[in-house]
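Researcher: Next sequence.
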Amino acid sequence: MDKIYRWVVRERDLKRIEELKVKYHLDGIVAQILSSRGVKGVEEFLMPSLDRLIPPFKLKGVKEAKGLIEKHIKEDSLITIYGDYDVDGITSTSLLYLALKELGAKVDYYIPERLSEGYGINEEALEKIAYEGAKLVITVDCGITALKEVEKAKKMGLDVIITDHHSIPEEIPEADVVINPHLPGAYPFPELAGVGVAFKLAQALIGEQAFEFLDLVALGTVADIVPLIGENRVIVKEGLKRLNNTANLGLKALIEIAGIAGLQLDEYHIGFIIAPRLNAAGRLKSAKAAVRLLITSDEKEAQDIAKYLNEENLKRQAIENTILREAIEKIEKEGLKDDKVIVLWQEGWHPGVIGIVSSKITEMYKRPSILIGLSGEEGKGSGRSVEGFNIYKALNYCKDLLVKYGGHEMAGGLTIQKENLKLFKDKINEYADRFVKEIDLVPALKIDAVVKKDKVDLEIAKKIQQLKPFGVGNPKPLLLFEGLTIDKIFDIKDGKHTKILAKKDEMVYELLIFNSSSPGLKISEGDVIDAVGTLEISHWNGIESAIVNVKDIRVRFPLFAYYKNLSKSLIYKEDSKLRNESELRANIVDRRGIEDKKRYVLNLLRSPRKTLILINTEIEFRTLIKYLKEEKFYNFSVSAGYCEQENLILFSPLTLEKCDFYEDIVIYDIPFGRKVFYDALSIGNKRVHLVFNKKDLYKNLKVFNEILPTREDFIKIYKFIEEGNKFFFKGHLNPELNLNPVKFAICLEAMKETGLINVEERDNIVMLSKGFVPEKVNLKEADILQKFIEAKKEFLDFVKFAFKPNFREVLK
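Model: Next structure:
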């Protein structure tokens, strides 16, 4: 898995999670998801229904539009709906056409052609509409920026109603009515798609009869990638019910030819199967056929158009694959994959398809991309961005090189003269270099819930499915599974994908990693991993089971928490000592040098007294755990931080200031610092057992060697960076370096301090680059290394006293 992601655990309110669990009888994982997403109207979110739709007349302009439409119907005027060539525009046009037909209106529609006319209203189209006798033009999914075009329409004697959902410009057209939920104070929910706005108008015109068209509204809403929250959530949830039992002959035919008839259709089938077929017509030729499909009452016509759209989609896919292959070849050949914005151009690239290819390039290379199809001396381009890079602002920065441009934060389009292409490529990357750091271009996996001791199974997977429909604003929840141990690894589909069986406590998880072979993942059976993925339901061979669709996976360094605590205690140690003998409140049981300390500890653990075992080195920890299991004793817990359990093995704690819960405290081996040692001795009315011996010293020194860097370690890291490796993961192994993550962190700190490298951090990743140093540096003089060297010296001084025969002398 060579993709790099930042892991961002969303903030969660623990109190709120408990409230949600109690009030709504929710599982802990589902409550985590709702809390992390800040869902406020929980009942409305969990149970969206038609009675939660906002009344249509709450949308500013709907009342006036209804009156004007009814006036034209009464006068038997021709009404023309002016739409757009994407799925939102197609469904908006179809919906309003069918609604007006219900009222007996004389109605027609006009869809501009992508290649010859472009997006939005154009004057030539208005002239044609007026010539054909229309008296009222209703725009859907367009029109909010058409100042001159609306002015011309009015001069031609046309009444104009604009319905749109795009951002409001500084000046809006002087139409008879303008309906846009983004207008100030226009509507309680501004995130409607174009078809959502048309639906509100249809509601006002024909009442609840408009609900019959919710399949079309859901289709346009999902396809236009608007947030699936609020009213959109109701629209899509109810619309999917209609879609699965649609009466629309065109949709039936399209579903049939797409091979998904009989399936339970959801937002996935809309976004990846139905919508691309409707979009194909407008991408390559005219979208009018798609509208005709959705409004026809002739079954044979519906089947013919559905077949045509399916064929157009196959053509679109072939063109798309060709452009994608050519684009990748250019990127690799010209060394563009490290450009902050990938800009490509070529003669003959289809303007209707390059936007899809740009999306795929951005997904593959994790950075913004713009593809430009040339025709003669002019090119038309389409771009897609990543979170954190506003592509519209970037285009605006380059506006002096563009004929025209438009878009929003995540997508943009442009027209450019061929002679300006190289200048444009350089200038947009200049903008990116000025305003965006490369580490900010690393995509984030936003984690909704952390699975620790939760039981996550098929039942939980089904509860998560109740949060559908998923999409923008409500994506599939991402879960972080911590500390899974790999049991088995399988290659599937001839090594194209990998399946992992992993265990934690009593749970066995099935993890699927698509498009990654097991050798490429660099994992082995027995590895402890953290994985981020979505919990989904598999129906393989008719059997339901829960699977984790893994988005990213990292191998944990064994006992990382131990080394992390240890390094903190050595670097940030406090000056701790017993000021006087009166502070020695513990009842000391001095068994230093005992021959069989494992047996001694076992007897304590078997006693009815609450016992705490303090262990400081990995080898002693593993040896004791192994011994207890051989003796078939399992009544104990293990932690790297203080907690209250009947029998606790506490592994390298930072502090031990509060310990009232326990009656017996055992210092099993030599502490690395005085603080924990003195903390234990200062606890009143407790028995503190000292069972360490002189042989333990060598185990402590071995740990120092584990985390103190050598010259070879620094050379290995520096060469690794020189070879082009930039990103590393906190707390997880980098297989190529195979360094203890704490040692790695110390190396980075020393190299950063001396200027050898630059270090930037975000969430779980570190990005490194070579620094500039004018002369040779001595890494041994780095402050962090000096602290460790001093800590080792202090430890050796402490050991001299820890074994003095007279224990009182140890405390001086």
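Model: The first helix runs from residue 14 to 24. The chain has 28 helices and 27 strands.
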